[in-house]
Amino acid sequence: MLTKIFTSFGLNPADFKADPITAGYINQTYKLSGKQAYVLQRVNKNVFTRPELIAGNLRIASDYLSRHYSDYVFLSAVKTPAGQEMVYDEEGFPWRLFPFIENSITINKVDTEEEAYNAASGFAQLTANLSGCDATVFKPTIDRFHDLAWRYAQFETALIRATYERKQEAQEAIENCQHFSYLVTEYNELIASKKLQLRITHNDTKINNILFDAKTRKAICVIDLDTLMPGYFIYDVGDMVRTFVSPVDEEEKDLTKVQFREEIYTALVQGYLSQMGDKLNDTEKTLFPFAGMMMTYIMALRMLADFLNGNIYYQIKYPDHNLVRARNQLKLLSLLEKQT
Fold it and tell me: Same domain for 147 and 272?
């Protein structure tokens, strides 16, 4: 299959070595090593049901940034000799090709305040640079992706449909999710207030979605832009809080290792404000604690709902993997609640 994809992009398969990049849950990604290096990725059409919207959003962003911020590094897709941005394989999955930036690295875990600051600044700079672009011309690549009310409704539906055995195994996690339902009310009231400005946000701000310079450890550019679309700043900030402040990620089974690192939290807030401080309104500047709780809660709901549904969305390595993830996120959520 890769041979056909290579040739579609005008590449000779014999000139490259393809090594899987396994950090993501959704797409299939390879680094192509040769005289010139690339990143080749298969988009999961079961998650991104209209992948052409991804290509359209990236094109709009790339065109705008090249006109207004010519020195800003933004990874645009490499086109085929026929001018296509994506190539479809025999199973209908789209593939796209990106240049590989030499002397760049990704990291999977935040260890220092500097990493937190630089990553938050990098994500914020993308939103800040796109602030003059009409958000309505971008299309949602996943509908209602971070809509907390909808995610809670999905959880309730999964709870109704779940087997007795799964509900028994997840009883404590279910009760914890129900306890935090007050966040849904707060979210609904916040959206209804119109005090949040709709912006172009990344919507998946894990630390490994930033490229760092291998020597200076400064942020080079944002990557994994499938979810670049209209959203609220609390989505990006919240996902950074969720994935930065604990020394362990959602895969950790030992919940005593889930902790709140205040110095990392402070650094990411300062990093974000360094680029977006003059663009956030007074209400938005008060919402950093809520953002972290909201996004952590969303992921707990999604992971628990997937477990209750029989593990049909996230890739798992063992039967209760999603339940472990949900418990992990609920522990972090309880720690974030204590900070408010």
Answer: yes
